[in-house]
Amino acid sequence: MKIITRTGRTRERRRTAAGLLFACSALATPAVAQTASPFPPQGGSLPSVADATAPTSQTTLGGGTGTQPASGTAGAADDPNRDDPNVATGAVPGPVPDADQEPPYEEDLNQPYEQPLDPGAEPIDAREQPREPGDPTGIRLGSFLLRPTVTNGVNTEITRSNGSERRRDYFSTVIRGTLSSDWSRHSLTVTGEGTLERNFRGGDEGERPEANIDADLRLDLADDTIAHITGGYSFSREDDYDPNAIGGATTQSGVNEFTGGLSVERDLGKIHGTAALDLSRAIYTDAKLSDGTVVSMKDRNRSGIDGRLRLGYELSPALIPYVEVATGHTFYDQKRDNSGYARSSQSYAARGGVEFDFGEKLRGEIGTGYEFVDYEDSRLKSVNAITFNGNAIWSPQRGTDVNLGLRTTVQDSTTPGQSGWVEYQATAGLTHEMRDHLVARLTGSSTYRDFSSGGSDETVWVAGAGLTWAINRYLDLTGDVEYEQADGGGSDERIVRAGVGLTVKR
């Protein structure tokens, strides 16, 4: 019979308590492991989250010194982790890596941690987002790119004048094109447009063909010096209410205009200088009366030469005030016209203004000045006027563009005893993308003719609207309506035009 003394019972209780403590420690280690940081252990001088929460080998969970209990205790015999070296050292057990698995990459907390960049707030209006570039169009011709378009339309025109009304229906063909170079230095741009009309109801009265072509050769002579060589041709027919039109003519005179010019732009620091020379030539065709009579207009043929100098100072890259002086001379082919007046003239002009460029939102220039035209015939009164000239392109938002223009010119008259008149013209155009493939247009202009040397003043108003639907990248469907009104100067005309067309582009 085995006798257990009081001292033995005490030792047995101590061994049982120690075993229970180690068993509780083994059960608590998984919960401690779950509190570790999701980032891998750091290799730097700062401790990791796991190091801060796990007990060290110098301190036991019970608060005493970390001595290993005897293997013969009851608690140690029931512990499944008794052979785990982590338990022996008091460390938190972790997953055992495979033999062929690379050790986890350790980041250095002393180095900045890469965070994803903030993409920023999304725009409220999706139309403000930059668009993906579309497929390029055009025809490659060596180092040039040609972009042609052809529009065929069916139109109607109703004209009311002095209590009478006439109507014509006609086909129209409009050909446009742009030819631009792709050179590493210098550039050449050629733009052209032509309109042909053919009446299928209302006779051949009122047909107005038009043509226009311009070329601009830019020469980069130096870093701060640019030269432009320009040339152009245009054809148009005078309107029935034009001050120089022939009354009762079924076909008004056509005007052939040839232009050419040379300009040099030079920048000297903040000073911008421009010198330009322009040449012009106007040839008039015969007019035809209702009874078949042909009226010659050769006495109106003339040539002109103009020169101008501009000097600007750059207050900032967006604002450049300038001053400009110009002079010119007009030579008529015939010394005197059919009425016996010598209409060759000399002109002088001075103006000042400002150029502005605020990026894509607003750019252009505006100026005012004074112009004086003196005629060779002493019987013709000189014409002088305050001038307004300028242009601006404003884009209040993406997909919306506003074009504004001001122009002042002095026109020669063919009326006996009258030298000429001052013509003020204001134009405006608005284009708005209603949808990605639908563009709306609004246009308007006002022309005021001031006959200071005699005759009543005249005002011409024009307003129009249109839509363009891009069926695909090569085909557009267009619709337009326009209203034109002329008051004063002995004319009273109201013209309404409307039509639809199909545009093929490449």
Automatic annotation (TrEMBL):
Residue ranges with Acidic residues bias: 99-109
InterPro entries, alphabetized: Autotransporte_beta_dom_sf, BBP2_2
Signal peptide extent: 1-33
Annotated region (Disordered), positions in chain: 35-142
Pfam families: BBP2_2
Compositionally skewed regions (Basic and acidic residues) per UniProt: 124-134
Keyword line: Signal
Name the record gives this protein: Outer membrane beta-barrel protein
Organism: Neorhizobium petrolearium
Lineage: Bacteria, Pseudomonadati, Pseudomonadota, Alphaproteobacteria, Hyphomicrobiales
